[in-house]
Every structure is written in structure tokens, then in C-alpha cells.
Amino acid sequence: MYLLNVNNFLEGYGHTVIYMKFKFKNLGLNYGIIDIKEASIPTIKDVPVDINGILDPSSIIEMYNINSLNRELANYYDQVVLNDIIIGTMDSVSIQKYFNFLNNIYFSLGNKKLEKFLYDSIAIILGYYPSLKVTESDYNQLFSDKRVVLILAYSWLWSIRILICAIILYLITISIFFFKKNYSKNQYKNQ
Question: What 3-state DSSP class applies to 85?
């Protein structure tokens, strides 16, 4: 689950959390948010926060620290911050396909940042990168003033896909040409 800041999500601002079913204290199994980066569970009145709790402007969210280190937690759950947040999700099937794809093509390049950039770019171009899903109204809110960026991004993506197809077709054509040329020479020599 992604907490996307409406104003600057394209610059990478926002926060990623896991929304899942887990056991919390004596409450049994419940769906809630686990904040891995902050090593904490957002709660309302000692109950794990669900999506509705995040979206409720009257919620007072507190953090239950699941890390033994006592440290200051970032304030991603303050209502002032949450007022500019849109929730996006990725389904687990898409995420699994993405990791299976990475497992099939991965080899170490010796630089983690380069690997992240390269392998994510390949996954995006080939359609294996999981799509982030938001409601239609949230999508319109996110991109209302970013239509040009959106058009340029899709144009770039499809240009690269078409270029890759053109290169493959070119290589096939060249291979066929050389095969025919060599086959013709061999036929001529055999006569």
C-alpha cells in the first residue's frame, strides 16, 4: 500500500506500508497497516489502523513501536500530512510476477543502484512492473495538472517498446539475408 502525496508524488515523496492480516496483542487476526520503515504499527485507540482509519480526518493515529530501539518516528500519520495523501495499492499476484521475472533475468552488476535502475526499467518496458492502482477520482486528482508529464511518459514507454521490436525485426531480417546469401553460394558451389 502506498501513501502518495498529491503534490509531489512524481518526485518520489510518499510512504510505503504493508496492509495485511496479522495478530495484534489480544485482538486476534485483523487487517491493519504495518509500517516496515518505521518499525511500527499505526493504531487508533490501541487497534491497528485499516484503510478507513487512514482516510478518516477525525482519526488520531498513534504509533505502536515494534522495534526495541526507542527512537523518534517520522510523522506520516499526522492529519495535516494525511489530508494530501491518496492511497494506492498493488496486488500480490502482480508483485509475485515481478519478482519471478527478476529472478529469471538477474545477474549482479556490482552496483545496487545501477541494478535497481536497470532491472526496474526492463520490468517497466516489458510490462512486468506491478501497476499501482488508485480509484478513478484519485487518479484524476493525482494527474489533473500533470497531463503533459503523463503523455510524455506513455510516449517514451511506447517509443522504447517499438524501438526494441524494430531492432528485433532488423536483426531477423539481416539474419535471413545472410542465411539466403550463404545458402545461395553453397548451392552454386555444389553444382
Answer: strand
Three-state helix/strand/coil letters over 144-158: CCCHHHHHHHHHHHH
Comparing CA positions, the residue from 91, 86, 40, 41 lying closest to residue 67 is 40
Query: What distance lies between CA 167 and its chain's CA centroid?
Result: 28
Given pLDDT bands bounded at 50, 70 and 90, which one contains residue 135? Answer: very high
SS3 state at 44 = strand
- Would you kindly state where each structural domain of the chain is located, as residue ranges? 2-88, 92-137+144-190
Q: Which grid coordinates are listed for 62?
A: 498513534
pLDDT tens digits for 71-114?
Answer: 666 778 877 778 888 889 988 899 999 999 999 999 999 999 99
Decide if 62 contacts 82 (C-beta within 8 A): no
- H/E stretch holding 4 reads strand 2-5
Ordered strands of the 62-65 beta sheet: 47-48, 40-44, 62-65
| Phi (first) and psi of residue 91, to 5 degrees | -85, 150
Tell me if the pTM is above 0.85.
no
What amino acid occupies position 36? I
